[in-house]
Amino acid sequence: MAGSNKTIQVYIPVYNDIRFLPDAVASVLMQQDVEVEVIVSDNASTDGTSEWLANAASMEPRLSVHRNRENQGMMNNINRIGELVTADYYMFLCSDDRLGATDALSSALKVMTDTPDVVSVYCDLLYIDALGRTLAARRFNRVGRFDTAATLKASIISGRNLFGIPLLHRRSAGAAITYPGHLSYLADVYHSAKCAEHGSLFHLPRQLIHNRYSGGNATGKLYHLSLLQFNALADEFGIKLSWAERALQRLQTHKTVLSKAAFMRYAGWRSRRA
């Protein structure tokens, strides 16, 4: 596919997510005013995901499925993006998330075509539960190009991803960047910072991605690595923190971890009541 340079490929790595994957795929196929292709890399699922994908792909030419013969691990499956994405523009979408509006991708593409120096577009988020009900909104209080160096340092000090979830990338900037296994908890922050080395990052102040928290997210299982990995990230990008910033980092990261753990418990409780 991807015959037009305005085609957007949406890459979805998946393992055993029959519950939410159909919603993620549908949210992409419903996009308006843009050509889309959904590329799913199935990491040897055993819960019916593979069968659903085979059936869906037989009826939907915009859905391309690649199944690993055996489970390659989460990060290896994510990094197939460099092999499978060929369009000029792409998005990486988690299998339990979804796009939040039918013009999400066309809005991001307009930014890309109007401002050639922009390599990644971000947006505000809506946190949802297992049934797609609103848990909370996350607004970043910014619009347009933003200071990526300041955002990276603030993320390290706060123990929180302050870039957000990317809505669209240029393949020339993002697809060749490997998500690092040693920074599994912060792979998205690392990727954002590396993309910023190739151009500007841009923010749309709309909730165009619905980020699902059902109590079983991989992120929740990794949060305890936060401080260790944020320090490794600082070393990776040569960011030196003063003793005062280190003290603030420990305090803020502790606060972030506690609040995230509480939010995960709340999301799990909401999902169990569904």
List keywords for this structure.
274 residues, alpha/beta, Spore Coat Polysaccharide Biosynthesis Protein SpsA, Chain A, 2 domains, ten-stranded mixed beta sheet, Glyco_trans_2-like, Nucleotide-diphossugar_trans, Glycosyltransf_2, Glycosyltransferase involved in cell wall biosynthesis
Please describe what this structure looks like.
The protein starts with 7 loop residues before the first strand and ends with a helix. Strands 1, 2, 3, 4, 5, 6, 7, 8, 9 and 10 form a ten-stranded mixed β-sheet that branches. It has two domains: 1-96, Spore Coat Polysaccharide Biosynthesis Protein SpsA, Chain A; 100-169 and 176-274, no CATH class. The protein has helices at 21-29, 49-59, 74-78, 81-84, 104-114, 148-158, 171-174, 187-195, 218-222, 226-236, 243-273, and strands spanning 8-14, 36-42, 63-67, 89-92, 98-99, 118-128, 134-138, 144-145, 166-170, 200-212. The protein is α/β, with parallel strands linked by helices and 274 residues long. It has eleven helices and ten strands. The chain is 41% helix and 22% strand.
